[in-house]
Amino acid sequence: MLVVMQSDATAPQVDRVVAVIRERGLTPHVLPGTTRTAIGMTGNTSAVEAALFESLPGVSEAIRVTKPYKLASREMHRDDTAIPLPQGTFGPEAFTIVAGPCSVEDEALIFRTAEFLLENGITFLRAGAFKPRTSPYSFQGLGREGLAILKKVREKTGIAVVTELMDTDNADAVEEAVDVIQIGTRNMQNFALLKRVGLARKPVLLKRGMSATLEEWLMAAEYIMAGGNYQVILCERGVRTFADHSRNTLDLSVIPPAKTQSHLPIVVDPSHGTGKRAYVPSMSLAALAAGADGLLLEIHPDPDKALSDGAQTLDFPTFAKLLNQLRQLAPTLGRSIPSGRSESVC
Amino acid sequence: MLVVMQSDATAPQVDRVVAVIRERGLTPHVLPGTTRTAIGMTGNTSAVEAALFESLPGVSEAIRVTKPYKLASREMHRDDTAIPLPQGTFGPEAFTIVAGPCSVEDEALIFRTAEFLLENGITFLRAGAFKPRTSPYSFQGLGREGLAILKKVREKTGIAVVTELMDTDNADAVEEAVDVIQIGTRNMQNFALLKRVGLARKPVLLKRGMSATLEEWLMAAEYIMAGGNYQVILCERGVRTFADHSRNTLDLSVIPPAKTQSHLPIVVDPSHGTGKRAYVPSMSLAALAAGADGLLLEIHPDPDKALSDGAQTLDFPTFAKLLNQLRQLAPTLGRSIPSGRSESVC
Amino acid sequence: MLVVMQSDATAPQVDRVVAVIRERGLTPHVLPGTTRTAIGMTGNTSAVEAALFESLPGVSEAIRVTKPYKLASREMHRDDTAIPLPQGTFGPEAFTIVAGPCSVEDEALIFRTAEFLLENGITFLRAGAFKPRTSPYSFQGLGREGLAILKKVREKTGIAVVTELMDTDNADAVEEAVDVIQIGTRNMQNFALLKRVGLARKPVLLKRGMSATLEEWLMAAEYIMAGGNYQVILCERGVRTFADHSRNTLDLSVIPPAKTQSHLPIVVDPSHGTGKRAYVPSMSLAALAAGADGLLLEIHPDPDKALSDGAQTLDFPTFAKLLNQLRQLAPTLGRSIPSGRSESVC
Amino acid sequence: MLVVMQSDATAPQVDRVVAVIRERGLTPHVLPGTTRTAIGMTGNTSAVEAALFESLPGVSEAIRVTKPYKLASREMHRDDTAIPLPQGTFGPEAFTIVAGPCSVEDEALIFRTAEFLLENGITFLRAGAFKPRTSPYSFQGLGREGLAILKKVREKTGIAVVTELMDTDNADAVEEAVDVIQIGTRNMQNFALLKRVGLARKPVLLKRGMSATLEEWLMAAEYIMAGGNYQVILCERGVRTFADHSRNTLDLSVIPPAKTQSHLPIVVDPSHGTGKRAYVPSMSLAALAAGADGLLLEIHPDPDKALSDGAQTLDFPTFAKLLNQLRQLAPTLGRSIPSGRSESVC
Fold it and tell me: How close C1 comes to chain D (CA, Å)?
């Protein structure tokens, strides 16, 4: 059920609706919009009648929402959601690029990459301290030591940091150390983890599961939002199909339906999506043209020596060239790529 | 085996190589390039030694090709293939748009669409006279009567026509009536049909099978090329996966690997690829950005009254708006969208 | 629309219903059952009212059928269809095994295999005269010469022969030469071919397309049946998925829903389904237990020297052992494996 | 690297090999077999030479293992692994059936089901205390309260209990309460969870991920085994494909390759695999015939009133009938279905 307020509804009128929802044992979610406020409710709404709310002052209408997801649904929130951070915004108009090495190999690599990014106007760094590896015998990341390096680079350079959280035990540490918490594809339906980051105060970048339908993906976002954290960024990273021309099948075609069904921003990871660096630039341009709100890219000063995922990683000159192409294309598509490095950042 | 000639090789030297190939019971394929000529051979080449050719005058080197496809392979033909027609070219630099209704419903519709397209500088019309329908009880197209309409619009307006051929019985009629012969997704491995269009003198637009790997798709192209028809245009039109957010999963990610493996031009059909008109514009822009050489689009003056596939069909104003966006984007991507309608055409 | 006659309806009453259907411009299909006759109709039935038929003498009820397929639907034909041939039946109670080499390599091979089969009580031989090959450079089968061999083995030994038809040009020849016409997986939606075998007087074994849903498969059967040939045998042969543990993913789970939706018999081809001979026996037993009506198996006296598909082909002793296991299992599952070789056959 | 001892090797000779492995900084895994002992090692084995071990007394040979999984590989352990519990064994010869309601709804349901099972000779009960639900608003299970009920039924009736563990926080509680710990399909690559159950002293039933290859599945088993817990039971429960005839595509075809690659027992869950109760009996029989070591089945005294997954749940009479069919079939396939309820159990 979604209660849409009149455009001139007052704050006490909103509060009254919230109170009525609480009285029914349900949880209200106040969703301010540009012209009017809507109030969603979660819990067992089957016994609640729309007429109850429509009789309250300031209410325009009460709508029964049919999608299994509510908070993630565009029915609940007509406008595109923008998730602002000091270093840039994930959302409409912007095209936000997050780049960095697959894993935090050592401090020198992270600082070198951060400096290169900031010089090029990119204010978001990605790097994994904890690495989900198919084999128990593969390099599993530096762990807490890696987190400390990420925290340091953030403090020293002002760059925003995105890193993956793999388990609830490290949730406090990751939340404290970084700017955006990433949930990986293998954990898209790790419900304990989703609930935990639903309590976090940092935005969550939620990768699509390897064979997740759009509805399942939005339901995973709903788990996070139902906990109170509305700052969810979707990330398409390739799905599993019969096709063998690339490691995964990067599904850019999910972008328009995701935008139709949901108000959440969506970024694309063509590095994991293709698994092959030669295909990354074309797919990055295509993601921008398809309507994505940003990119997640793997870059490394010496990809062939990277400890993980080198085959899909761009070197610095290739990345700079791609960035240039993206900047040329963006205005035609109504997007701007933030130039970053303002005083407020560093 | 591929025999690469020296850049200054003479015609008699090429002829000599051709003759030697024939003597071994193999079929030579002369593939002229911008700087040098290469000669492929098909048949059982296992017993032929490279040294035999390398000793002939004018030969630079003889290379054993490892891909199962030869003529479709970029190893055999380094440059992008351009397929020129009087009304425009499928290949590098151009971005060629083919549009029209799903089926030839009647003469008025076809002429109205052709005129609209030509007014907008689009010189390729698509429309089905024969329709592959999942149900035997669905409208199967006007057949020969539809072909006659297509032939007429072509003669009267000069527009180039693309239509699907579904069986060998109609091959002569279709080849005579239109400019480009389309092989549909369900027939990508209809080998009798592939062999037949391998003998045609018109270009063939080969749609990817619903679950075809890139290699199988290029092998289907190889069937056509092995018959002597080197004018093959690949067309991505969505594949079948678990995803249910659109009718098929439009696989733009196949474009970079297709360009790496093959020299053939590739166009994208976002209408069938998504099955939903609202998603077509974004996917069209993304196809251009991903490196496609053109688009195949379903348009109709009144999509909701179309006899087939209305849900995925654009109306004229939406198409014109999309065309405008594509024209704005193309130059940044090193492409030009032919403006068409020169005197030589009509 | 399906008109169900009373159990004691007379032949003239049936004829009357048929005549009324024809008067409406529709095609009647008389479907005799064990206790009563039903009459389906195809064509545009939207304007026909059930009441019209229910007022005719001998009619029990007229039911509007909602599935897109009618003739293939169990709604139209409650009982399992049995397709009897002199050498055995495809349908309930029986478990009919068809075995043989992938391709007709030469006459000696075919006779040797037929004799081995008959000695083991198996009365159906499979072998390809025309071979669908992914590569134009692979062995394409002996063609008409192969057909002649099949015709000869049939005449000399009385064994029933199943072979694939790939194109309409060879339809007459194949229909004349063999007992069951196979339509391959790549041609499941080759509608020209389906229409052609809809006119044939021999049963058609219809392989499931590589990514065909159950509905699409039954619609392909419907194409054949709409032409008047109701003798369709479905054949599951593996579908295309992300899984790489076998060449295709043999989908035994389609058997119960196929039996629910349709009355047609269904057999399983574990040779193509798995692509690996070591997996064939287990999957054969599982097919029997899952409710299949038979098997299509590749066998060869010397699989490693087979001209095609050797990797998935059983040798004779392994086949004999499997046959023994199947015969032990069948009675518990309410099936009998015909012992064949009666006088009437040879 | 796998060190295979001579069949008459002594315990001190085995100890010597173990010590040499430890000296190299690697972890030894002693794997006793029926005729001889093998010793695997994990860690970075690239610098270790086979010759080093082959010179030690009692060693037959040292083999470099090429699969990415080692402990789960049949190369490391030639014989089928049997996992014995007091109530029955998962492994060769037995066919072990685990049945029960989707979730622990209340104590009465669990006791009623346990009694029904034991009366029918089934000694393994499944029921979820923690439920992975796609929606945050769906019933999530009784949690710790459900665990207490399971513990009680186990103590009072002697039935063995299988339940799912969804997060590390509940690991101790689940391990203490039940006999077999289930890891669900969504957590197959929840590496933190896999590592935790690698330390458990109870067998782990590891469901295949929704789009996991066989190799990824065995690598997930390897995570558990690398922690020291070698009691892993694989469970096929349907994968995600394009097919829509059932909720998932139950992949029985993975059984023979899983048996070839690994020595671990494998059971099948046709309830989740098909999602429809009408298909469960056929697929259960097929699983037995395909070589599975057991079944996981959802049953409920009143499936239509079940709090979750009712559509795929068998009622008691249908289950009893299926059990009877399985018992008839099993001996022919070299399996026995334990009759259970011996004194030692209760």
Answer: 24
